[in-house]
Amino acid sequence: MITVPSLQLFFSPSRNASAPPASPSPSCSVERILPRRYLSHPPDPVTRQFGGRILLAGRKLADEFVRALRLRPDEVVVEVNAGPGQLTRSLLAGGQKEVVKPWSAEEIDASRDAWKGVTMPKLDSPARGSGTKLPEGFPLWRNELSEGRTLDKHDEEDKAAEHREGAVTTETASAAETASASAINKPALVVASESSAQIIMRGLGFPAELVPFKGLMLERLSEAAILDDMTSAGVYQSPLDPRLALSLSTPYRWPVLPRILSSPIVAKHLPIYDPEAPPGTDTTKRPWEADPPPLTIVGHIPNSLNGEQMLAQWVGSSVGEAGTPRSWIWEWGRVRLALLVGKSLYDRMMAQPGEITHCKLSVLTAGLFDVRALPPYHHVPNVDKSSTLTETADHVRSKPSRARSGTPAPPPPPFDTLGLVRTKTYRTDFFPPPANTGGMIEPLPRPAMMGILLEPKRDSVVTLDQKDAWDYVLRRCFIKEASSIGEALKNVGFGGEVLATRLNQATGYRGRALDPKKIVRNLDVDEWARVVDVFDKWAFKPENLILDSRGEDDLNREIGQD
Question: 3-state secondary structure string, 75-105?
Answer without folding.
Answer: CEEEEECCCCCHHHHHHHCCCCCEEEECCCH
